[in-house]
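Tokens in:
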């Protein structure tokens, strides 16, 4: 009997906290924020003058977030993303070849949100305009290249809201045509005005 009453009180307390927190935390409007994370870039059969190899690199990255939440379930968002300096190397008969890629971009996405009390689960789709500075070096021989484009971006994530502040975790996939995969896993926060 006491267990049933205790469980009932816990359920009522949790329901009260969720219902009481939602009006204060479901804030719509402009928001800004930032996040830090880890970017991963893979290019299978990267063609160098000396050899082909499977390029795989990851780096610490960050992004600056700007957005507008229209209502509880819809937002638009733009980000400046610095994927970091992504480096990999291969040993060849002629020596070690190192490839460094500095990848940056701007993206714009539409976000669908599922509000769950003080939390949201979200998915987004949009476009990323990216620029990559590529440096391949073997000893004293250095080759520089620049590449850019506009491609699709997809993402999923979750956030917990505390009035105007939201703490979020997300995974984004950038469908960059010249790469086999580009992922960004990040943790950050936004503030709604």
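Residues out:
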């Amino acid at each position: 009997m006491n267990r049933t009453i205790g469980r009932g009180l816990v359920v009522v307390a949790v329901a009260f906290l969720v219902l009481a927190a939602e009006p204060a935390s479901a804030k719509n409007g402009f928001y800004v924020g930032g996040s830090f994370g880890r970017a991963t870039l893979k290019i299978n059969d990267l063609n160098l003058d000396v050899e082909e190899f499977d390029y795989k690199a990851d780096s610490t990255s960050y992004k600056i977030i700007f957005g507008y939440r229209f209502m509880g379930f819809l937002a638009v968002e733009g980000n400046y993303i610095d994927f970091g300096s992504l480096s990999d190397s291969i040993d060849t008969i002629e020596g070690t070849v190192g490839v460094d890629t500095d990848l940056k971009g701007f993206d714009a996405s539409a976000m669908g949100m599922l509000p769950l009390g003080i939390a949201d689960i979200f998915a987004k789709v949009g476009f990323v305009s990216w620029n990559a500075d590529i440096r391949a070096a073997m000893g004293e021989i250095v080759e520089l290249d620049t590449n850019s484009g506009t491609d699709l971006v997809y993402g999923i994530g979750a956030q917990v809201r505390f009035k105007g502040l939201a703490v979020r975790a997300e995974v984004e996939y950038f469908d960059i045509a010249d790469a086999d995969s580009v992922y960004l896993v990040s943790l950050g926060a936004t503030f709604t005005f």
